[in-house]
Amino acid sequence: MIIFFHTYILLLLLNFMQYFLKILVHRVIISNINILIINRLIFQFKSLE
Predict the structure, then answer these.
(1) Between the CA atoms of 18, 24, 30 and 36, what dihedral angle is there, to the nearest 10 degrees?
(2) SS3 for 49?
(3) Where are its TM segments located (predicted)?
């Protein structure tokens, strides 16, 4: 019974970690895309001058 409980908690932790990692990766990708877009815009403005 205790072993079952431990494996259950482990599974919950793994699911939570997976969920957290997905969110983290998603955030990082979005922020990287935003940075790329901003850099592109700045570069275009500089080339216009």
Answers:
(1) -120
(2) coil
(3) 6-25
As a dihedral over the C-alpha atoms of residue 26, residue 29, residue 31, residue 36, rounded to 10 degrees, the angle is: -160
Query: 43 in helix, strand or coil?
Result: helix
Distance separating alpha carbons of residues 19 and 30, to the nearest angstrom: 17
Name the residue type at position 13. L
Residue type present at position 48: L
22-31: list long-range contacts, CB under 8 Å, 24+ apart: none
Instruction: Report the predicted TM-score, pTM, of the whole model to 2 decimal places.
Output: 0.54
